[in-house]
Amino acid sequence: MRRLAVVLLLLAGCGQAATERVPTIAHTPPAREPLRCSDAPRARARAHVELFRRGDIVVVPAGIGIRDGRRDGAYVHGRCRAALWTEEPTGLVLMARPATLGQLFATWRRPLPRARAWLDGRRWRGPLARVPLRDGAQVVVQEGLPLAPVHAAYTFPP
Amino acid sequence: MRRAALLTLTLLALLPAAASADGDPASDVLLAQDAYYPYAPKASPQMTKALNGLLARVRTAGYPMKVALIQAPTDLGAYPNLFGDTQGYANLLAKEIAFNSHPHLLVVMPSGFGGDNLGAKVDSALAGIKVDDAAKTDGLVQGALAAVARIATANGHQTPVPPEATTALGASKASSKRSTPSVLVYGGPVLVALIAVGALIFVGRRKEREE
Hints:
The complex is a heterodimer.
Chain A: H1 2-18, E1 38-39, E2 45-53, E3 56-58, E4 66-67, E5 70-72, E6 75-77, E7 80-81, E8 84-85, E9 92-95, E10 99-100, H2 101-108, E11 116-119, E12 122-124, E13 132-133, E14 138-143
Parallel strand pairs in A: 2-14
Antiparallel strand pairs in A: 1-7, 2-3, 2-9, 4-7, 5-6, 8-9, 10-13, 11-12, 11-14
Chain B: H1 2-14, H2 25-29, E1 35-36, H3 45-60, E2 65-69, H4 86-97, E3 104-109, E4 112-116, H5 122-126, H6 136-154, H7 182-210
Parallel strand pairs in B: 1-2, 2-3
Antiparallel strand pairs in B: 3-4
């Protein structure tokens, strides 16, 4: 039995080495304009959110929470913004005050996926919508398998 | 218990390992544009225009390239430990952005160059190109300008090195977006004081006339 276990372990290793998975982009729902916005709210908190579907990257698009945004390459800028918004497609979420993952999806106007979440590298056991996006939070959301490696921390820009 | 362990191991053998991904801003930005510029200090508009123009030209010439300029660990998001390891980061980034293609990728850090799929002559093409560390982001852009042109040429796409690649750059302040002209800093208060003195004199004379 032990030998069998060893053989399977080796197989597991070989399988991973031979078929290292290159992530692809899963369908990324585009940003929609927010229902409400105010004039140039200041970002008082920032969080980083990574989304995966079956191991593939789902890009958090630039322009969430921005009305009449001006696109500049990969970036979107605009003055009329919701309480949280994204200016770049990197998962960096800017917030007028700390929010939740549920509020991010509500502003994006997309349904929350049935997924698992990690906050600062630790598995989140509560409701997905309540994952806190406080200042400096690093959040990973994964729908289905295989799981991508979970980053526990993120170095935020100045 | 043993059966459960065996089942888990079997599943592990069948599941492909997911590659590390999506923790660095450049991998997301490079999906939509050919260059990733650092957060700070900002590249000057002149240098940005020069590099964007060059990348558009090599793309038209049939040698599309992606360039990641990394000025500080904050440009690496979840991988700050790779700052200074140009080739290590290039290997990671190449996997992250290789969805349906195998792009020609160049990574520039203050410590030098890294890359992927840049042809057999890449080392000789990059020989002698220095990154001006003192010029911060504009120094990275300048290094990238020379490198992109020479790599494209080495791969059969004759591309002249743009003049901005050899322009003398100022200190890092030159690329800072927030730099304020010294005339405003020092001249502003002097101007306000002069106006105040003028107003006092004017009011004083008016009172004298009224009396």
